[in-house]
Automatic annotation (TrEMBL):
Described function: Catalyzes the dehydration of methylthioribulose-1-phosphate (MTRu-1-P) into 2,3-diketo-5-methylthiopentyl-1-phosphate (DK-MTP-1-P).
Protein name in the entry: Probable methylthioribulose-1-phosphate dehydratase
Textual note on the cofactor: Binds 1 zinc ion per subunit.
SMART domains: Aldolase_II
Main location: cytoplasm
Compartments in which it is found: Cytoplasm
Sequence positions that bind Zn(2+): H116, H118, H191
Entry annotation: catalytic residues: E141 (proton donor/acceptor)
GO biological processes: L-methionine salvage from methylthioadenosine
GO molecular function: methylthioribulose 1-phosphate dehydratase activity; zinc ion binding
Alphabetized UniProt keyword annotations: Amino-acid biosynthesis, Cytoplasm, Lyase, Metal-binding, Methionine biosynthesis, Zinc
Stored NCBIfam families: salvage_mtnB
UniProt cofactor(s): Zn(2+)
Length: 239
């Protein structure tokens, strides 16, 4: 190997290890936001130019992870890096149960990063209207933070029903990705939300906007106001 290709290899390895460390750092931040507590939630970053995908492990305290806890997959889903086994009481490393869902989202959308949050506000917003097939909100400044949307637009996010195992959501997610071509988020009733963007920066900032809007909807509902109308006026109750 000549010195030029050696230096190329070095930079590729550095990009992968830097991204693994970044996911660990971001999950520490998301923990403080209440998105990944109790080992819940997950994150993935795709390194398009290297054909590699980083994923968080399953059943691990997300705020205590380091770079070496990350799984790295090839674009076809095969393993590229498996984390080392840690001494008891740590369990053997296992990739996130979201793995097939993340791969499906990457396949159907041009995403560079995906965040799966177990935030309370993402759950509650689906419980207020238990029969709703989607979450709709308009006339809120933070809607501008969602790609392709402005203040006056109606933001529509599909809601799917929860399942006992994360992997069982695959058919519902596939269906709503087809039915809602503009969406870059899917809410799972009583469970959480998947949010993605073209980069980790886009996924993170949009995730902040989505959580803000879910929180706003819950607070407006508590105030007796209808979050889904332009005026956010009083909730009309049918007698
Ligand atoms: Zn989950």
């Amino acid at each position: 190997m000549d010195s030029h290709s050696k230096s190329g290899q070095f930079w590729k390895i550095k990009q992968v290890t830097d991204s693994m460390a970044l996911v660990a750092e971001l999950c520490g931040h998301f923990y403080k936001m209440g998105w990944v507590s109790g080992t819940g939630g997950a994150m993935s970053v795709r390194l398009h130019h290297l054909g590699l995908i980083i994923m968080t492990p399953s059943g691990v305290q997300k705020e205590r992870m380091t770079a070496e806890d990350m799984f790295v997959k090839c674009s076809d889903g095969s393993d590229f890096i498996i984390p080392p086994v840690k001494a008891s009481p740590h369990k053997p490393p296992k990739c996130s149960d979201c793995n097939p869902l993340f791969m499906k989202i990457y396949e159907m959308r041009n995403a560079g990063a995906i965040i799966h949050s177990h935030a309370m506000e993402a759950c509650l917003v689906t419980m207020i209207r238990p029969l709703s097939k989607d979450f709709r909100i308009t006339h809120m400044e933070m809607i501008k933070g969602i790609e392709g949307h402005g203040y006056y637009d109606e933001l529509i996010v599909p809601i799917i029903e929860n399942a006992a195992q994360e992997g069982e959501l695959i058919n519902s997610i596939t269906e709503v990705l087809e039915a809602y071509p503009r969406t870059n988020a899917v809410v799972v009733r009583n469970h959480g939300v998947f949010i993605w963007g073209e980069s980790w920066i886009s996924a993170k900032t949009q995730a902040e906007c989505y959580h803000y809007l879910f929180d706003a909807a819950i607070k407006l509902h508590q105030l007796g106001m209808d979050w889904s109308t332009p005026s956010h006026g009083p909730i009309k109750r049918s007698s």
